[in-house]
Sequence to fold (136 residues):
Amino acid sequence: MSPVTQVLTILCWIVIALAIAPMVWLLMQPYLRGLSQAERRATGLLRDVLTPEQFHELIWRGYLEIPSPTEPQRVYRVPKNKGYVQVIENGRAIMRLCLQPAECLPDADLVALHKLMIEANEEIYLQKANKYLCIE
Fold:
């Protein structure tokens, strides 16, 4: 190989590495920041509560969609981090729900809490939540 070809090859590899580095950093950031013991245990519990497909959806989309046990056209969209739970009916957001525990919990525990409450007794879940209608 000529020196010019070697330099071009090295430059190409540097460009590829620089293009991939931000994506790798974003994927590894949750693992590199050092999760607390409570957060690690909460994530383990959430993995046990969710199916592998649901856990994958939560990680990649940033939310988990939980089908309503009573209304076939309704889905609850629970965010991965703190925030409002969206109620989706027929593909449209109809309201946002705010329901928080009295004590601070890791985000993974909040997702598990919403999932279990919705599936156990959707009516009581809706009674306890603060509701904000979505108006177009």
Observations:
- The longest strand covers residues 92-98.
- The chain has a mean pLDDT of 88.
